């Protein structure tokens, strides 16, 4: 009996010792997410919300006060140049009102003169831009200019052509405004037909029913939705990093549309963020290449602007980086499954990926290191370490 008791005690002692040894072996092991440093392409991008708009659009307003009788139009209807959008019936003018109408006709004449002058300037700018494009194309054929410079000149020529179209539409609108003001003078008639300055689509109806409106009241908006552009507000500190002609990607629902940066406005404006902080933002205007049937005026999109592209660089998840002072570090998992802190050089950082130097390709790094992780601490990967995606980087 004594021998049997001793045998049972030895078994219990061995079981307890084995359990303690197993527990000490597991003590201090931290489960972590890991990724592998790879070599591949990297795009540094900037993502912001934006809105599309018809490049040519105009707010049609009441040229005079009177009773507005709109035409039977709905949003999305097409209108031709000169088509009647509605009529304004004015009351007979008294002497004071007649003097006001005479002054209004003078204003309309002056606006028409200014619109014609602006049209002449736009014509000259378009001619000069086309000459510059012709010279650039000839030099490009001879290898005298780079493809990037040729594309910049071609974009500038397209922009001048669109500005010429807008200036022509403003001249037409000013002519209609002058005729409307002249028609209200004594003997000129009491009904003014408001006409479309150019062909387009009804984008908004401000006055859908008959009522008396004052002069200058917005009646409707028309524009051409076959040529769209996108307006993206970016921080003024980021605007200087955006190159002219930079590629853009616009996401609306499940659709992705290509675009490129057409111009960056030189004036910033103050916007209050959701956190109540005032930010200086700059409007970046992009030319939409293929708007398609699912994009229209004033659609909200997520815009991704490509700031730079690098080929065959070392990339790793941006979440693996942490800062200590002015230096950047990562935790590398060694052969013994221990975390080793390693300093490296940060070249570029996106929303998801980062370009680095000073670490070997194929190294296994810890993504989002937990606070309890220390140098030489034992780790256990949550899942096998997949290679990180390298193109494109942030989205």
Summarize this structure as a short list of keywords or feature phrases.
alpha+beta, 4 helices, 395 residues, six-stranded antiparallel beta barrel, conserved putative lor/sdh protein from methanococcus maripaludis s2 fold, four-stranded antiparallel sheet, Elongation Factor Tu (Ef-tu), domain 3, 3 domains
What can you tell me about this protein's structure?
It is built from four helices and 20 strands. Strand 16 (327-333) and strand 17 form a beta hairpin. The chain is α+β, with helices and mostly antiparallel strands. Strands 2-9-13-11-10-14 form a six-stranded antiparallel β-barrel. A four-stranded antiparallel beta sheet has the order 6-5-3-8. Strands 19-1-20 form a three-stranded mixed beta sheet, with no helix packed on it. It has three domains: 24-42 and 311-381, conserved putative lor/sdh protein from methanococcus maripaludis s2 fold (Beta Barrel), CATH 2.40.420; 45-51 and 227-309, Elongation Factor Tu (Ef-tu), domain 3; 59-225, RNA polymerase II/Efflux pump adaptor protein, barrel-sandwich hybrid domain (OB fold (Dihydrolipoamide Acetyltransferase, E2P), Beta Barrel). 29% of the residues lie in helices and 40% in strands.
Would you identify the CATH H-level superfamily of the largest domain? RNA polymerase II/Efflux pump adaptor protein, barrel-sandwich hybrid domain
CATH topology of the largest domain: OB fold (Dihydrolipoamide Acetyltransferase, E2P)
**Quick one: biggest sheet?**
6 strands, antiparallel, barrel
Distance between the termini: 75 Å
Stretches where pLDDT falls below 50 for ≥5 residues? 389-395
Q: Which architecture of the largest domain would the CATH scheme give at its second level?
A: Beta Barrel
Indicate the proportion of strand residues.
Answer: 35-45%
Q: Evaluate the radius of gyration.
A: 34 Å
| Classification by helices and strands | alpha+beta
Average pLDDT, all residues: 84
Order of helices and strands: HEEEEEHHEEEEHEEEEEEEEEEE
Shape: elongated
Which CATH class of the largest domain?
Mainly Beta
| Strand runs, count | 20
């Amino acid at each position: 009996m004594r021998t049997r008791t001793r045998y049972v005690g030895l078994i219990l002692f061995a079981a307890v010792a084995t359990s303690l040894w197993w527990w000490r072996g597991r003590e201090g092991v931290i489960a972590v997410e890991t990724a592998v440093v790879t070599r591949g392409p990297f795009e540094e991008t900037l993502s912001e919300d934006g809105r599309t708009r018809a490049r040519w659009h105009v707010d049609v307003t009441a040229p005079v006060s009177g009773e507005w009788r709109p035409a039977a139009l709905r949003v999305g209807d097409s209108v031709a140049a000169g088509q009647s959008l509605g009529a304004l019936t004015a009351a007979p003018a008294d002497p004071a009102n007649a003097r006001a109408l005479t002054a209004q006709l003078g204003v309309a004449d002056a606006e028409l003169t200014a619109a014609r002058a602006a049209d002449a300037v736009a014509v000259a700018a378009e001619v000069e831009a086309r000459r510059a494009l012709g010279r650039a194309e000839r030099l490009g054929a001879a290898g005298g200019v780079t493809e990037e410079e040729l594309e910049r000149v071609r974009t500038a020529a397209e922009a001048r052509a669109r500005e010429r179209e807008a200036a022509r539409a403003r001249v037409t609108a000013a002519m209609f405004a002058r005729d409307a003001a002249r028609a209200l003078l004594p003997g000129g008639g009491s009904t003014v037909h408001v006409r479309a300055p150019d062909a387009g689509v009804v984008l908004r109806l401000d006055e859908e029913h008959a009522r008396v409106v004052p002069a200058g009241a917005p009646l409707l908006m028309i524009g051409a939705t076959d040529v769209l552009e996108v307006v993206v507000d970016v921080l003024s500190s980021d605007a200087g990093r955006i190159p002219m002609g930079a590629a853009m990607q616009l996401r609306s629902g499940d659709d992705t549309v290509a675009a490129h940066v057409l111009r960056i406005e030189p004036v910033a404006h103050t916007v209050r963020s959701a956190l109540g902080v005032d930010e200086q933002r700059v409007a970046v205007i992009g030319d939409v290449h293929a708007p398609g049937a699912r994009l229209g005026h004033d659609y909200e999109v997520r815009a991704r602007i490509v700031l730079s592209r690098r080929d065959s660089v070392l990339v790793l998840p941006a979440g693996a980086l942490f800062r200590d002072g002015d230096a950047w570090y990562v935790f590398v998992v060694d052969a013994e499954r221990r975390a080793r802190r390693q300093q490296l050089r940060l070249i570029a950082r996106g929303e998801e990926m980062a370009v680095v130097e000073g670490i070997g390709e194929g190294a296994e790094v810890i993504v989002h290191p937990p606070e309890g992780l220390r140098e030489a601490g034992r780790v256990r990967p949550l899942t096998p370490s997949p290679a990180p995606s390298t193109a494109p980087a942030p989205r």
